[in-house]
Amino acid sequence: MKKDERRVECSTALSPSLASPIRTVFSAASWLSVFVFPILALCHASPANAVEVSPYSGHRYGGSFMDSNTSAEFEVADAAAYGLALDFDLETDKQFEVLLSRQNTYLSTAGTFTGNPLFDLTIDYYHIGGIYMMPGSERVRPFLSGTLGLTRMAPKRTDLTTENRLSISLGTGAKIFFGKNFGLRFDVRAIYTALNADAEIFCSGGCAIKVYSNGFVQTETCAALMLRF
Question: Could you list the residue range(s) of the whole structural domain that residue 22 is in?
């Protein structure tokens, strides 16, 4: 009975290993269906509303937790990130954005020089938001961006379950056009993922970490090939 109760306490943050990926897919799909389909309909109705597709790669930094039971600190290793940004024209200087991003990394205990790796970890962001294009030339357009959505943290261990948390990002960057329909895009964004203080994460019967934190922040820098249709 005690074991069942422990699992119930963790259920607000986690789900069984099979249900978690399915829940994540449906959660992401629901976000996209609610916001992307109306924008696609708008773009289809008006040829002036173009769509930009920007597959990107870059690097993601930061992210740490502290265990309230042991005071041990855990860090997410800096690692490469890649993803896709979809931008839909709304006005001359405004765009609706769908942002998908992935990082394959690992969680380790914090150390002065090197930490002790605990397990591999995949961190995904499923976000929606917008871009405001600041004044610039026809070829170079600086911008500000803001998105919100879901963070998915999936340990590469079968005995640990996946975390799904709300997150928000703020960023800046520039789009450089080499022609009407293609160019390069550069981004720097900070992503905050919310965690309840004293939340238990990465659970399976028992929990790996009892977090002493209200969240963690990662910074992402990236470059993208931008195609405009």
Answer: 2-228
pTM summary value: 0.77
**Total count of domains within the chain:** 1
Most confident of 8-22, 29-43, 115-129, 194-208: 115-129
38-84 tens-digit pLDDT: 555 544 544 457 999 999 999 999 988 777 777 778 899 999 999 99
Q: Residue 182, Cβ neighbours under 10 Å: how many? A: 12
| 184-188: average pLDDT | 98
